[in-house]
Write a structure and sequence with these properties.
Elements lengths: L1 E4 L2 E4 L9 H8 L18 E4 L2 E4 L12 E3 L13 H8 L9 H14 L5 H8 L9 H13 L5
Parallel strand pairs: 1-5
Antiparallel strand pairs: 1-2, 3-4, 3-5
Helix pairs in contact: 2-5
The structure holds FE2/S2 (inorganic) cluster (FES) (2 copies).
One FE2/S2 (inorganic) cluster binds next to loops.
Length: 155
């Protein structure tokens, strides 16, 4: 069995094939950007993109991800290491505090901006509503999403 993660085909050892995707990404493949928050689909910290759509990886059996295109926070940067425009907007607006929720919020924003060129506050809030941030970064998140949208961040 293998997974397509960040445009690389990665073999999955047999002992990991009955796990949830999040644990395979973090513990088997060493991609620790996606976080384990609640583990039951309630916080959004584990969000990755599956064929471009946000997906809570703590809930997804890894076998359900076979043959799908998985993108994690580690896969957003360009080949030359340049940060994705959404990541740049996050830095410019100094969004993260503890940072725990941010990978999920960023990948969900990438998906939002691919669908909606200039999202309204209401559309941003709806897209990110399931992403809990105990540090209260929601206002900076919203500002950064608008900035990324203004920069044409649809990559
Ligand atoms: S860790 Fe997956 S939703 Fe909380
Ligand atoms: S930045 Fe700390 S939980 Fe969101």
């Amino acid at each position: 069995m293998e997974l397509n993660v960040n445009e690389r085909r990665l073999p999955i050892a047999p002992e990991w094939q009955d796990e949830r995707l999040l644990w395979v990404l973090r513990e088997h493949l060493g991609l620790v950007g996606s976080k384990h928050g609640c583990g039951v689909g309630q916080c959004g910290a584990c969000t990755v993109l599956l064929d471009g759509a946000p997906q809570r990886s703590c809930l997804l059996p890894v076998q359900a991800a076979v043959g799908r295109r998985i993108t994690t926070i580690e896969g957003l940067a360009a080949a030359d290491g340049g940060l994705h425009p959404v990541q740049q907007a996050w830095l410019a607006h100094r969004v993260p505090q503890c940072g725990y929720c941010q990978a999920g919020q960023i990948v969900a924003t990438v998906a939002l901006l691919r669908e909606t060129l200039r999202p309204s506050d209401a559309q941003i809030d709806a897209a990110l509503a399931g992403h809990l941030c105990r540090c209260g970064t929601q206002q900076r998140v919203r500002a950064a999403v608008h900035a990324a949208a203004s920069s044409g961040a649809r990559r």
